[in-house]
Amino acid sequence: MENFFLEPSNQVQSDDQRPIGFFFHVITITITCTILFLSMKLAVSQPTPAEPLFLIKPLTPQKIDETANIPTVVTTGLSIYKYRNFDIVNNNFLFEGTIWFEFDPILISLDTISKFRFEKGEILHISPAKTRIVHDKNILALYDIVVKFETELDYKLFPLEDHIVSLVLINHKVSPQELIFESDKQSFIVDENTRSHGWIQAFEQVETGYIEERLDEREFVRNIEHPGVQFSLLYRRAGLKNALILLMPMLVFIIIMLTAFSYDPQKYFSSIMVANGASLSGLIGFRFVIEGMSPKVGYFMVSDYFFIVFLALAAILFLIGIFSLKLNMRVKKMLILIVHGLLITAFLAITIYILSFTFHGVEIF
User: Fold this and answer.
1) Residues with Cβ within 8 Å of residue 326, at least 6 apart in sequence
2) What is the pLDDT of residues 244-259, one digit of tens each?
3) By the 8 A CB rule, do 165 and 88 touch?
4) What angle is formed at CA 349 by the lines to CA 197 and CA 295, rounded to 5 degrees?
5) Taking the model in full, what pTM does it have?
6) Inter-residue contact 346 to 37 (CB < 8 Å)
7) Per residue in 277-318, pLDDT tens?
8) Domain range summary for the chain, segments of one domain joined by +
9) CA distances from 27 to 24, 55, 251, 259, 363 (A)
10) Superfamily for the 57-237 domain
C-alpha cells in the first residue's frame, strides 16, 4: 500500500506529472468566487419572504350575508413607537405602541371593544382607554400598549432570506356577523426610528378578515369565528454580512484544498494530505458555528444545503489528494474544473430556489 502512494511509475513521472500552475488556480478561483458572489447578491437584492401572506381569512359578501344581521363596522389602527426587542432569529418581538378604535357607541359598547388581544402575543401593559368624540357621533378609543409576540416565521431561506413579521389583532367576544374591522395601510404606522438590528423595513400591509377556530372536522357549523386584523411588515436583510460570515469560511477551506495541488506531489505529498485533512476537519468543525448562528428548526435551510455542498466537494478533493501521485496534470486539472463547475452549479441552483419565493411577497406588497 505504501508503494502505491510513494513510488510512482516512470510514466507518471513524465511532464504530465508536473504540479498545477499557480495562475491556473488564480483564474479558476476568481471566476468561481465572482459567480458565487453575484448569485448571492442577486438573491439578496430581491424580496424573498417564505412566510404565508395571510394568517386570517378574508371577509367576503357571502360570508357577511350568512346571517340576517348587519355587522357593526369598527375602524382600527396601530402605531409602533419602539421595539424593546427585535429578534428574528429567535422569533421574539416586544414593542411599545398605541392601538385605536373608532366606533358608534350606539351600536357597540366600549367594553366589547376592549376585549381585543393579539394572536401568539401577550399584552404586558395596557393603559385605560383614552376616549374622545370624533365625526360628531363616533367615539375614538386609544390604548397605550406594550406587547410581546411571536409570528409565523419561515427560515427555509436562511441566511439569504427576508421575512414578513405579522401581528394579528382579534376580538374573541364577537363574531364577524356582529362586528367587522376596517383598516388600511395609512392606519398602520411604524416609527422611522425603530431599531430592527440588521434589517430594513421595506413595506407594510394591513388585511382585515376573521380567524376560525376548528372544533370539529366533521361539523363546520361548530367552528368558532372572530373578527381580526393582520398587520404585516416586510423586513429585508441589510446586506450580505450574515451570508458571508457563514459561507466565506467554508469557501476558504475549499480554496485551500484546491491550491494544495499547486505543490509537487512527489515532494510535498505529506503536506498536501495535512492541508486537505485539516481543511476537511475544519469544515466539519465549522458546522457547530453554523448551528450556533442559525435558527433552531427541524427542517433544512439554505445554510444546510450550502454546508452539504461544501462537505461533498471537500470529500472529493480529499480523495483527489490521496491519488494525486497516480494522476497526471491533465486529469487533475479536469477534476478540479469539475469541482469548480459543481460548486457553481450548486450555488446557481440554490439561488434559483431562493428567487422562486420572490413573487410570493411582491404581489401583495
Assistant:
1) 4, 8, 12
2) 888 999 999 998 888 8
3) yes
4) 30
5) 0.82
6) no
7) 889 899 999 999 898 888 988 899 999 999 999 999 999 888
8) 2-45+241-362, 57-237
9) 5, 50, 16, 12, 41
10) Neurotransmitter-gated ion-channel ligand-binding domain (2.70.170.10)
